[in-house]
Structures are given as C-alpha cells and as structure tokens.
C-alpha cells in the first residue's frame, strides 16, 4: 500500500503544504543517465579555469576546441548591416521566414557548393539551420529506436551522445556503449574505418575528419556508398570541414559519388568556412530520392520526414544571418573566406611540422584544421603536461573514443603568432 506523503515547499513567504494520497512523480528519460558525467569540452573548460585561477599571470594559448578566432569576412559584415537596415524599415521588414531557409541562400548553395562540382543538388533539397552540430544530433529522431548504428572511433561526441539519449545503446562499459557497432580508426587504416563486418542501418562518417584530420578519396567513399545500397543502410556524412580541402582529387561532397543521393544525408557549416561560430548558420542536404523503410517494409521519403521535423521543431535562421551567409558566394566572399581558411591551414602546417620535428607521428593538418598526434601516453596526462608546463590547451584524444587513447588533437584555429608562441612553449616543455 502506498502511504500518503506530505511535502512542504517555500514559495516566497508562503508556506505551502501539499498532501497526496498516492505518490506522483515526474520521471526523466533514463537513457540520459547512461551518458558519461559531462561533455568532453566541459571537462577541458573546468581544468583550464582551475589552472587560470592558480596562474593568473599566464597567457593561455588555446589549440583545443575548434572555435575560429578570425573576424567575419568584410563582405559578410556589409551584408549584415544592409539586412539589419532592411529590418528597420517598414517597407522591407521581414517577419517569420521560411523554416527551410530563404530561396536566395539555398539557390546560392546549390549552385556553388554542389552543381559547380558536378553534384546535382537542387535548392529544394537544402535545409538552412543554426549549426551542423544541431542537425547531426537531431537527424536521428526520424529513425527507429531499434536500428543498428555504426559509429567511428574516434568520433565527434555529439553523434554518439544523441543516440545514447534516444535509447539506441546499452550502458557504458569498458570505454564503450553496448549495442553500438564501432568502426575503429587506427594507423593501419589511416584513420579511415573499414567497412562493417556485420549489417548496420545508420552510418556516421565525417571527412575531413574531426578529430583526426584524415581525408577520404573518391574510391574509398564509393565503397561506403555501395555498402549502403547493398545493406539498405543510410550514411550521415558530416562535411563541416570541406572548405579546408586543397587537393582537387578529394571529394568535398558525398554527392560527387555515383549513387549517393539515395543513401546519404550531408551536413555543412558556415562556422568554419567563414567564421560564423558566433553567428550560427549551417545547412543539411536531404535529396528527394533519399529513402528509408517503415515497419511494414514500405519505402518512405527521408526528405519529407526531415522537412516535417524541421518545420515543426525549428523556427528558422534570421534574415540578416542568411543574407550574410549568402554574401560568401559573391566573388569577394569567395576570396575573403578562402583567405581565412588559408590562414588556418598555415597554422596547421606549422603545428604538424613542429610536432613531427619533435618526434611525434601526426596526421591531418594538410586538408584539415586538425592535427592528430600520437603521444603513446595517457591522453589526459599529456593534456595536463602541456597545460601545466606550457600553458597550452589541446584536446585529449580519449575524449573522442577508446581508439583516441594515446593521442592528442591540436587545433589550428588561432592566430599564426599565437601558434608560433605555443610551439615554442611546447618545445621547451617537452625538452
């Protein structure tokens, strides 16, 4: 028998007594309890804050989180100003915009990012959003809870954590979640995972890769597309760092690969392309021929499902932000955003060159802003060493998965002079 309970709550100056004849309670989603105690970058932030408090005189040099440091391209700022001015005039004011995004931006994306490279993507297949992180995390909502998910290791944490929240995994044991098919990256395969050795339904891929900086060629990506067709699987392709590719032989979109339109969704971001991390703008591409199956085995349009979810749970990106994003596709915009990327790649080349000279094996840093460095040491211990002795923040590889133990990720998102200073400090710390 349930005993009556009495609870007292203090509401301002009022003492409220609530008596229940039966116990009632708000329950949480138990799957959230499977998550590790905190997000990787929250752990890093706590460590850095504690160090800063003890060493207030030390200038901390951040080569950790992948946040850009350079200002928006001038052409974007001008477009912002013009769009804000429009919003201040009654005759040009914009109210609620289309949830999928304004046609002027979607058409510019389709023409410049896809059609110009031979990838036939229509503006109607593009969904404007406030971040690739949000979209890669939210997309899983439209798929069944009991599907088998293939996850790279190491991997960007959001992919995995959102599937844990959705209930597609067991508990975290031995550095991994039960029920997930892990696609291991290692020096033998160049951190490009091999095809699964068992059937899977949903496959996460990211190239240029976060965290490793690895890139994939067209032949290798074709294997994944062919596999998805054979297994009736779907690929979630995160191309947030495609603007860093300088090798014209490497694909910048999965839709450059024959057959990909039916089996792949692609995510892009303006955050790294043009410094929009503080402004928020990205997009997801869901071709109209992309398909999945319902519980009865009937084909379902993934495009229509995502459109329904997107319009229901997202209010759209503001008009000034979309105008600023569209400015990137002008000739000035292309030149200015490329200059930003070139600056970060210069930093990446310096980091890779210096760390290689110190005897560390590195990948990335050539068509990517990230350098994946093998230390052979406990990842958090090496992180602490660089922080305490050099005042330099990196990212411990183990935060990206079990295969990241013994590795550190170094980010090129900083000023060149700061990177030079960081490398000097690291040389002294590791001497």
Number of helices: 13
Provide mean pLDDT, rounded.
93
Number of strands: 19
Helix content: 25-40%
Report low-confidence residues grouped into runs of 5 or more: 1-14
- CATH topology assignment of the largest domain: Aspartate Aminotransferase, domain 2
Question: Can you describe what's shown?
Answer:
This protein has 13 helices and 19 strands. By secondary structure, the chain is α/β, with parallel strands linked by helices. It folds into 2 domains: 33-71 and 333-430, Aspartate Aminotransferase, domain 1 (Alpha-Beta Complex); 74-331, Aspartate Aminotransferase, domain 2 (3-Layer(aba) Sandwich). The strands form 6 sheets. The chain has a 7-stranded mixed β-sheet with strand order 4-12-11-10-9-5-8, sandwiched between helices. It has a 4-stranded antiparallel β-sheet with strand order 15-16-19-18. It has a two-stranded antiparallel sheet with strand order 1-2. A hairpin with a 2-residue loop joins strand 1 (5-11) and strand 2 (14-20). It starts with a strand and ends with a helix. The model is unreliable at 1-14 (pLDDT under 50).
Features:
2 domains, four-stranded antiparallel beta sheet, seven-stranded mixed beta sheet, Aspartate Aminotransferase, domain 2, globular, Aspartate Aminotransferase, domain 1, 13 helices, 19 strands
Summarize the structure.
The chain has 431 residues and is α/β, with parallel strands linked by helices. 36% of the residues lie in helices and 18% in strands.
